[in-house]
Design a protein that fits this description.
By secondary structure, the protein is an all-alpha fold. Helices cover 84% and strands 0% of the residues. It contains six helices and no strands. The chain has helices at 2-8, 10-44, 46-54, 59-92, 105-132, 135-140. Helix 2 runs parallel beside helix 5 and helix 4 runs antiparallel to helix 5.
Length: 142
C-alpha cells in the first residue's frame, strides 16, 4: 500500500522539488543583485564618508548611519517582497503534497534573515574600507 501511495504522490513530490530548486535559485539571484546594488551605493558614498570623518564624525557613527540607511531600504524591499510572495504562493500550493504548508512563516523568516545578512555584508565591507582611507584621499576619490 505504501508503494502505491508513494507512486500516486510522485508528481506532487517532483513539483515540490522543482519549485524548491527554483526558490533557492531565486534567493541566490536576489542575494547577488542585492549585494551588487548595496556595494555600488556604498562605494558611491565614499566622498561623503570622507567629509564626515574629516569634520570629526567617529567611525562608529558613520558605520551606524550607513548600515542603518541600507537596512531601512532593505526592510522596505523585503516587506514588499514578502507580501507579494504570500500572495503568489497560493496558486503554487496545488503542486505540493498535503503535508507541506506553502505559507510556512519559517520559510519567510529564513529568506528575510538571509537577505538581511547579505545586505549587512554588502554594506559593512565598503564602509569599513572607506573609514580606513585617509579623509583627504577620500575627498579626491571620484
Amino acid at each position: 500500500m505504501s508503494e502505491i501511495f508513494a507512486g500516486a504522490l510522485l508528481p506532487s513530490r517532483v513539483g515540490a522539488a522543482i519549485l524548491g530548486s527554483m526558490a533557492l535559485f531565486g534567493l541566490l539571484l536576489a542575494s547577488i543583485g542585492l549585494y551588487g546594488v548595496l556595494l555600488y551605493a556604498t562605494e558611491q558614498r565614499m566622498r561623503e564618508i570622507g567629509i564626515r570623518v574629516a569634520l570629526g564624525a567617529t567611525p562608529g557613527d558613520v558605520l551606524a548611519m550607513v548600515v542603518g540607511q541600507s537596512l531601512r531600504l532593505v526592510a522596505v524591499g523585503m516587506a514588499i517582497g514578502l507580501a507579494l510572495a504570500a500572495v503568489a504562493v497560493r496558486p503554487l500550493s496545488m503542486f505540493l503534497v498535503p503535508e507541506v504548508r506553502p505559507a510556512d512563516p519559517l520559510n519567510f523568516v529564513a529568506v528575510a534573515c538571509a537577505l538581511a545578512l547579505v545586505a549587512s555584508l554588502a554594506t559593512l565591507a565598503p564602509t569599513a574600507r572607506a573609514l580606513r582611507v585617509d579623509p583627504a584621499a577620500a575627498l579626491r576619490h571620484e
